Amino acid sequence: MLGAAAAPSNAHGAAADSAEDAAIEEIVVSSRYRDENLSDVPDSIAAFKAADIERYRIERINRVASLTPNLRFSDDQEVGVSTLVIRGVRQNRGTGQPPVSFRIDGVSATNNLLTTQELFDIESVDVLRGPQGALYGRNAIGGAVLVTTRQPTTTPQLGLRFTAADGEDYTLAGSVSGPVAGDDLLGRVSFRVQDRGGQLENAYLGNEYVDFAESAAVRGKLLFTPSERLSIDLRAQYLDQTEGSGYFTPGSDFFLPLPAPNPPIVVDVPEFEIQSNRIGESVVRSGEVSAKVDYELGWATLTSVSSFTDVDSGNDQDLDQTFVEAIDIVVIDESETFAQELRLVSPSGQRLRWAAGVSYFGQDRFRSLATTFLGAPVPAAAQDLKLENLAVFGNLSYDIDEDLELTLAFRWDEETPEDVTQGRSRTFSELQPKASLAYRFHEDLLGYVTIGKGFRAGGFNNLAPGSNFQPGFDRESLVSYETGLKTSAFGGRLRAGMSLFFIDYEDQQFFLFDQTGTQANINVPKSEIAGGEIELTAQPVDSLLVNVGFGFTSSEIVEYEDIPGVLVPASRIIGREVPGAPVISANLGLQHTAAFANGLDLVSRFDAEYRGKTYWTLDNENVQSAYTLVNGSVGLEGERWGARLFVNNLFDEDYIEWYFGARFIGLPADIAWPSQPRQAGVELSFRY
Length: 688
Known about the structure:
Helix content is about 5%, strand content about 60%. It is globular. It has one domain (about 10-150, about 160-215, about 230-255, about 275-570, about 585-685): Maltoporin, Chain A (Beta Barrel). The protein is mostly beta strands. The protein contains 5 helices and 44 strands.
């Protein structure tokens, strides 16, 4: 869980008579379960506080990714499905696992379908890059995304926000907070509802909109503090999302195979045009309850985090993405998950600081994929998967002297997936140590070196009859080497961080699927990824805030062997780049504030994001060329109200979000997920 405190992003709030008063206030994070200045933590962290979230219009993690070097997040295929890549470490879809620990208020999102949920009533979002399993649990092989929602308040508060945008896209969000029974029991209720008609059209179905969306989410929180030592934080959330599904576009000519001896039919179709023979629809409904209990023992804080999550989802779509009725698919995905964590954290103000704990994760998940091929049903790929994970973890930081800090951490996981349908199970266990040295060269310059191991368990593929993929996939692990610098200068008007990393990867997992309905993960025996990030925030004058980010990766698939189900030979894969992440990513943000005498601020913001060349496939033959996205907004902000005009994708850039090559997945054509067009809108807010 994170707490974030920083100077307001608007210069009016931060301005003062002296340069020192006008300095960018330090961000406070709790990434090691204690409040620390961001510049004191020996990790590569991108942090967004409440003012940033409002002005950047952060409503999903894909917006966070556009502002974070070496983080890419793509929605595709259906609601809840995404592909997240962090420093070249990739998302595993289907019954695979994400590459980051995604936590909201300290509670893990226990199903990969929940990483795409809308973010509303949010206090802070932090992205930690590099292995974070020692503190943030399973699947933190590439990092952690930590979201903190707004807490209940001791005084009554009310907030409403309404947005209207192109595509008949209307959103209403709000919250109410205050005492329930004196200061000992505080409550907060927040909600978000959206109704979107859509902007992308199907050219072969009367130009019907395919990217429609309806969603509703509500969250309730109770904070009970019966004594100075004890606090109980209860949270419940319900989410209901219905969206368009499967509006991939063909990326090549369409090859329609027929039974021998008939030759295939080749259909010349327009590439990158939505033309499926049906309008797909998908749904995700989830409910979650959690309890976080903190008890002060004096010598440590004891924390218990318990959660139960129920997720039901479904998807009905045209899988071949052409106007020919070749392959259709229906997906059902249901899961129930219970998670429990206990940890002890020492006080902050001592030379030796530590945290230790144990955790349990249990999930029962049923997934079924039924396909229809040329009008004939194909036996469904169904899997009832039970999953258990037990872990022990710890973190220790010691001040060797006033300028040198040593941090040692570890996590030990034992994870057992059991495929009840096929009567098979396997246990994966791994020790994940981490060590770092941080040295303060002077008051405003911190340097660090870190070595850490990350781990993600293997599992079982959901095979349909006729599939050539292997029944299971192995665990993956990596060793990450990182060095970095953090500094501030010019009286606090400049804050910067730089990191370089090298990842030695074993058995990296990749997601593929085929025309039978099978969704499978495979392993690449050895790959290497090198790269780095630079992030800078500057306030050259009181009225102007500048954000700059730059990230790059250079990678190579070092070892690969021919794998059943993968039709491309090893000779065309060895030596290629690891696919999925832009080779270069960069962002520039300019925010200007004009303060008026009546207490109003005119805040103008410009954001540009550059995404370099991206390889989509293991053989690197399908490539997205570089492109730049520009967003802008201008708004009036008062103490109680605000109004903002905004535009996303200002120059209506057309690009591909994600791509599957037919030679890897056995479909009749390459398929590509289209980008969203330009969208302009207005946002009105009120708070009391």
